[in-house]
Amino acid sequence: MLDRARDLGELDHRTFRNDEFWREIPGWRDVTPQEFGNHLWQSKHSIRKLDQVQSVLGSRICPTFIDDIAAGLKIAPMNIRITPYVFSLIDWDNPADDPLRKQFLPIASQMLPDHPYYMADSLYEDVDSPVPMLTHRYPDKVLFLPLTTCPVYCSYCTRSRIIGGSTETVDKDTYGPNPANWEPAFEYLRNHPQVEDVVISGGDAFNLTPRYIRLIGEALLEIPHIRRLRYATKGVAILPMKILTDNEWMDAFLDIHRRGRKMGKQVVIHTHFSSPREITQYSMDAARRFFDEGVVVRNQAVLQEGVNNSIEDMVLLTRQLAYMNIRPYYVYVHDMVPGCEHLRTTLWEAVQLEKSVRGTTAGFNTPTFVCDAPGGGGKRHVASYEYYDRENGISVWSSPNVKPGELFLYFDPVHRLSRDAQERWGNGDSRLAMVHEAIRRSNYEISDMARTKIAERLEGGAARSGEKR
After folding, report:
1. Which of 148, 143, 66, 168 is closest to 108 using CA atoms?
2. Span 134-380: which CATH code?
3. Are strands 326-332 and 297-302 parallel, antiparallel or unpaired?
């Protein structure tokens, strides 16, 4: 049986890329391992503009692909910012199909019109915000957003409405870290004893200075009823060098981690690997540094077309994370935010993928596949819908302990449906009729107020369907 496992590649998750892969980029051919492995060099040489893409790649990229990127940036809701680490891992011999390029560098030829019912704030984070920078949806947990900058900008970002600076299609109210603006959030938490869990996100916690890592951590740990802090950062995946060489940042985080531990409180890292292609020996070394210090690291991936929606990639990702002592926590069905229709999958794919992943490794290292129900319903297991019309791509959800008596709707990408279904979606009246029929078939009793909320969301989508982005 063991020999058969080897034949099937079931030990591939133990092999990590460890070559000088960045030398394949013409502009970085002479960069030493010491330079490339330093977080300051990585930050200084991050790709922020299209002319940098041309400059470092030289003849490795054709002019037509550059034109495709340029056209994509004109309609994408996110600017570009890519670390050399990630940029070097892209297969520049076939960038159109590369899973890392798809996540960080949009091309117009692959982008699609937004779904008629997309929402810029699909998860209602702004709606469920009692004070600025804080979202309080679940009874004992809040989301704290102390900044809106990141070391990379993901094309599929759920917060593209505020993160990454204004683009040609989106005006954004971005903000950097400012302690003077955080006090209302801290005061709210002091006055709400039911809250025990705080996610510190943004933006990205990697972009908080050591001083701010300590300031936030100390302020929250001093609140008696706060028991769990999660510093959220994609940095472990896209800038592992910071963990390995930015000792000031690590010392600040570890100080908060140790202080919390002495108080009987959890301080952990939540990170964000979505593709096995993101994982190298740098990843393993960074994860090991956290592990050696007793820090729990959990991973939250986003399910994306052409990135990780194959059984092989998802199983490999899950096993590699577990091997690095990073706990596979969630795989999210892609949120219904603008500029991402080409990356979304159907709900059915998520259900089938979880079935295939479950049983390939220990249960505690198996991620839960969830749909973060649009409209603020919160995270729901992908198979826990009240009703799913696969033909028309409409799923109906309830969230009894988050927003009792309400229903929430998630929609599969229209281009993945049958031709007949696509035609129905192209007509406003038939579109509404399909949605209301799905709600009826769910047999879920909802209040008149809940029906009004659904109608408002649908009417908002109908109004947006005529927009040009």
Report:
1. 66
2. 3.20.20.70
3. parallel
